């Protein structure tokens, strides 16, 4: 894994490293002072064996609530699937205080701050990777990573020090990465599910594979 010495797994709430996202964050804080509007921390225990890597917080979802995938459409499918395969317990109610617990599972993003139009720039993805690397480094039992979409896949590969040609993104693909397995899925976004690029069954099949492998 690439080195993350001296980088904490969670960026400071005023992380200054991406000027465009800092400006966007300031605008969001002015417009919605009661929203989270900061780099969104990972959800779940660092001792988990499974890490799910998303793209970036959604404006009305994690950026508002402060918990990954909580409060937007993508969270409905993600948390329903995690509950079905025993990676979560409780009831998902789209609020960070709904009591939902992750089980042997952690969720974080490749980019920690909300980007305009849900589209981080390559330099922002590259800059924020240090926190993804630090997050993986603080997970001693990590065995499986599910990458939600190509950007999460590519950034995770780079975090692991692997070349894209050796493990190209494809929905349903499983890549061996030393002691880790990387599972790819299309992102569970509203767009992908509305256009049937990703069906709930396709998404469930990925987590069924992870569950079968982890036992
Ligand atoms: S995206 Fe990551 S690196 Fe960029 S400002 Fe936010 S926390 Fe910092």
TrEMBL record:
Occurrences of domain Uracil-DNA glycosylase-like (ranges): 41-207
Domain of life: Bacteria
Keyword presence, Iron-sulfur: yes
Keyword RNA-binding applies: no
Keywords: 4Fe-4S, DNA damage, DNA repair, Hydrolase, Iron, Iron-sulfur, Metal-binding
Sample GO molecular function, one term: DNA-deoxyinosine glycosylase activity
One Pfam family named in its UniProt record: UDG
GO biological process, one term: base-excision repair
Family: Belongs to the uracil-DNA glycosylase (UDG) superfamily. Type 5 (UDGb) family.
Protein name: Type-5 uracil-DNA glycosylase
The species this protein was found in: Bradyrhizobium lablabi
């Amino acid at each position: 894994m690439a080195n993350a010495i001296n980088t904490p797994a969670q960026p400071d709430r005023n992380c200054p490293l991406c000027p465009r996202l800092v400006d966007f964050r300031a605008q969001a804080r002015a417009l919605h002072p009661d929203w989270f509007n900061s780099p969104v921390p990972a959800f779940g225990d660092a001792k988990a064996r499974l890490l799910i890597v998303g793209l970036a917080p959604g404006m009305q979802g994690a950026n508002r609530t402060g918990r990954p995938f909580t409060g937007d459409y993508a969270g409905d499918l993600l948390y329903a699937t995690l509950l079905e395969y025993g990676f979560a317990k409780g009831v998902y109610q789209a609020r960070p205080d709904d009591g939902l617990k992750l089980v042997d599972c952690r969720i974080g993003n490749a980019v920690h701050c909300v980007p305009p139009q849900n589209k981080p720039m390559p330099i922002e993805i590259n800059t924020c990777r240090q926190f993804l690397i630090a997050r993986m480094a603080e997970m001693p039992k990590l065995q499986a990573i599910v990458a939600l979409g190509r950007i999460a896949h590519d950034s995770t590969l780079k975090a692991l020090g692997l070349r894209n040609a050796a493990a190209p993104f494809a929905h349903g693909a499983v890549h061996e990465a030393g002691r880790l397995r990387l599972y790819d899925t299309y992102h569970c976004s509203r767009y992908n599910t509305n256009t049937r690029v990703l069906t709930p069954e396709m998404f469930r099949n990925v987590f069924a594979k992870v569950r079968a492998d982890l036992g």
